[in-house]
TrEMBL record, chain B:
It comes from Flavobacterium beibuense. Residues 2-246 form the ABC transporter domain. This is Fe-S assembly ATPase, SufC. InterPro entries: AAA+_ATPase, ABC_transporter-like_ATP-bd, FeS-cluster_ATPase_SufC, P-loop_NTPase. NCBIfam families: sufC. Belongs to the ABC transporter superfamily. Ycf16 family. Gene3D superfamilies: P-loop containing nucleotide triphosphate hydrolases (3.40.50.300). Keywords: ATP-binding, Nucleotide-binding. One of its GO terms (molecular function) is ATP hydrolysis activity. The keyword Nucleotide-binding applies. PROSITE patterns: ABC_TRANSPORTER_2.
Amino acid sequence: MDLKEKLLSSFMAFEERVDVTADLHNIRTEAIKNFENKGFPSKKEEAWKYTSLNAVLKNDFSVFPKKENALSYAEVKKYFLHEIDTYKIVFIDGIFSSFLSSTTHDGLDVCLMSSALTKPKYKEVIDTYFNKIAKKDDSLTSLNTAFAHEGAFINIPKNKIADKPIEIISFSTGNEAALMVQPRNLIVVGKNAQVHIIERHQSLNSNPVLTNAVTEIFAHENANVDYYKIQNDVQTANLIDNTYISQKRDSNASVHTFSFGGNITRNNLNFFHEGENIDSTLKGITIIGDKQHVDHYTLVHHAQPNCESHQNYKGIFDGSSTGVFNGKIFVEKEAQKTDAFQQNNNVLLSDKATINAKPQLEIFADDVKCSHGCTIGQLDDDAMFYMQSRGIPQKEAKALLMYAFSNEVIESIKIPELKNRINKIIAMKLGVSMGFDL
Amino acid sequence: MLSIKNLHASVEDKEILRGINLEVKAGEVHAIMGPNGSGKSTLSSVIAGKEEYEVTDGEIFLEGEDIGELAPEERAHKGVFLSFQYPVEIPGVSVTNFMKTAINESRKAKGLEEMPANEMLKLIREKSELLEIDRKFLSRSLNEGFSGGEKKRNEIFQMAMLEPKLAILDETDSGLDIDALRIVANGVNKLRSKDNAVVVITHYQRLLDYIVPDYVHVLYNGKIVKSGGKELAYELEEKGYDWIKSEN
């Protein structure tokens, strides 16, 4: 039985296992129908031209997590931002781990999707926001919606500044020979509220994992949301991330995606504007090698006047790795005075590495500022010689150049400890130790 | 200090250096002059170890050791310094961090511990004062958006930090106004000692008023065609390079 059939036949059993409200049942049923019609995306689709899931889908994934596999904090401490105090929502093989988590209902809700979906006190929030911006006609998003049950639920009420960052971490233990998980996150940030969120998926051994995640984020008037995705997983882990962000007027939302690991990683990142004077930031650093593959598929939908978006993606590709950047900016007729910026710079360190870059600008307003730039280059020989002539060995010189190349993205990380961590991961990726942080 | 014997070098199969012989002793300043395209910059790059130049014949010795096969960083660790004609811009790396890395890599190669941070700061302060460099300048990205004069001053600042045995100044005077020229030359003169040597590569005699050479060599068509004392520089300035061209 292939994975699609397995998922379809599991659906009824799944719905029997979890609590179902009538509304939720309808949403899920609709979603599974859409997935049934569309199936997994193939390379024949324009949006998936450069990313093939075929090999991954051949794994015999378990689609239901069986039991919680306990982990001690010491085993996984390094994956947390342990230098500072954070709220934590932790999942082990798709199941919530209360032991590793640190949730709250004190002034803000940092808790579980499974309880939000079923408890009466969250009904209004769920009715208002759940599955409202996730794309209904996208097969993988639909698949997630059909099985939507567990994930992070974060609700920051108006005027509330979250007192510490929130970490959402999903561990896979290898308890199953191959595991598919589908976390579903909902994040609502009220008027004038602020929050920093860090998301990470981490396998603890080399059994194949497929994560198909959907995150919906709502940033209300003048809200500030900074979201950081750390993708530094083992090379048997695959991630399809579908993130949808809706912004109201005067809000700021940023998503930083650090893609250093994994086998196949696909980031579908979508921003929708529902008011004026909105600021959206999409930044990423990709550093991969071997046969790794990272695909960034971004959309910024400018629907209102006087909004800004800033995209800056840096990629460093070694070995036979492949990268994709597909960045779409859509400016509607009403969205006058839009200022949309998109930058994508890539360095290929090996002859076998590939990058496919495709900026797409669709502009229907006439008074806008839209710019995009894309570069693909090799390491600058003159810069290398310059640094070597100062006594910096080739490997360190290369690392320093790569650091410098990524620095524009690193410097906008607002949590200093996270910035440190990212610097360290980059140094590790480049095989050097740096005596300073850039 | 530096001994070059019958050096031939090519780039992309085109021979640029055609048998250079040069002896530079500790404590000396040598000037290498010549018209454009004579091979001056190639010579400095070859001494520093740039890989795209292929040494087809001859040898380069530093303090009696053959350095011809060494990587650029290894030559730097042994005390070779090249002040670039066109210093490379490296956005995202500050002057300070660049120097920290360079100095500590050099120390690492010599089996020394990293320089303690306070010592490093003191050294940076001392050397930046020598070159009249503003402290704000040190936190800027290396060479990015620097004026011509700032770039050259920064090169000599790096030289001061690294204290090389052999410093090669490739067209350090180009793009400098007279004040910057004086500061740069003053910096170089203060760094001179009986234990190090300087090779000044220049098109014009002007710099040599400030950094006075013991010997002047004229490079033409990849060979040293004339050598003499500092008066040779004046003679060249007066007669122009056509004088050399007509004789060769």
